[in-house]
Amino acid sequence: MKKRIVCLTLALLISASQVMTVSASREEELREEAAYTSSQLDATYSYINDLGAQIESLNAEIASLDQDLVNTMVNIEVLNTDISNKEAEIQKTRKNLKRAKANKEKQYEAMKLRIQYLYENGGSNAWYNLMLDSNDLSELLNKAEYTQKMYKYDRDALNKYVETIKEIKTLGVQLNGEKAELEDMKAEQEANQANLEVQISEKQSAANNASNEIAYAQQQANEYAALLEEQTAEIQRLEAERIAAEEEARRQAEAEAAAAAAAAAAEEANNQEEDTDAEDADGEEDYTEEDGTYEEDGSEDVVTDEYGNVIDEDNTVEDTDYSESGSTDSSVSYSGSGSSVADYATQFVGNPYVYGGTSLTNGADCSGFVQSVYANFGVSLPRTSYDQMNVGTEVSYSEAQPGDLICYGGHVAIYLGGGRIVHASNSAPYPAGGIKISDNAAYRTILSVRRVM
Question: Which residues are CB-contacts of 411 (< 8 A; sequence separation ≥ 6)?
């Protein structure tokens, strides 16, 4: 009889489980869909984070380029001032040359008049008439000496004017050469400015595109989040319905089992002997006469997770110790003096100027030349003239010594002493471009003098 009741109960439970199969299947599908939506949402947020890092990197590069652009524009303004000053010096030199030529012509005309007067009043007998007109030898000597002094004065004056004109012309050529060099440097700085502006524009465009991508990705993330919320709510609803259906099926099965038990009890009352035999049969199956206990299977209890996987509670993870060791030696040594640096640098005079180059023999630009010269003495300098303007100790130009760095806007040179510098210049045609010595270190505005050694 008990077996019949159990079988009836199982049949009812199986029938109820078949009714709930569709609901459970839909719930499982929703869980899979929600898992996919969650993975898509995580991937979208990861993409947004990557784009944010990209924008941050681009903004850092833009800030650096902006600083370079500001430095370049400042250098251009300094060069414009230097060019204006050089033009003023050239104009002044031209006026001095014109004035000197006029004085020379005036002196020359005066000398011609004096010579003409002597010949017109005495001709070839000028000295004879000078003797006759003299009252005594003393007057004669005085007149002769005066005439000699006038002659010497005229000759010295003309020589002086000739020399002055020569010096002024030489100065004019020098000033024009220095102006040409400044204009070449200005053109180079303007090209650098244009290049920086293009780079900034490109990186700003890339940053804007990344921002647009972030906005679109964020919109997708919001859609995924909303869909995931809907899926989660639907899963919770189906789960609640499934639990309620399982409870209802269990209640109905218990009620039907109770009804079946009541029917069986009535049948047992009508056929007591059959029921008694059935109970004995059940007792033989479920009860052991020898020890008076119910049989139990020998399975051991195990712990499982929510998905039915067995958890090994004895499983452990051993700790692993990590150690790191290392040392760095940041000491830097060098040998030499400022004078030896200056002497060494002059060995390469005449070698070519190459923009971006660092070779003392095959070509270097201004900062590459300075960097390579000092590298020979074990001194590591930055690559650009902007950074080299901040190395060492600043001193005044009046205190400059051989080997010091003379820093201009966008240019750098090595001081030789006596107002002279050696540097890699891109000027042409005068003086020729390349590594050269210039006699006027202050030919343009000096921004800083740095002592490295």
Answer: 185, 366, 385, 423, 444
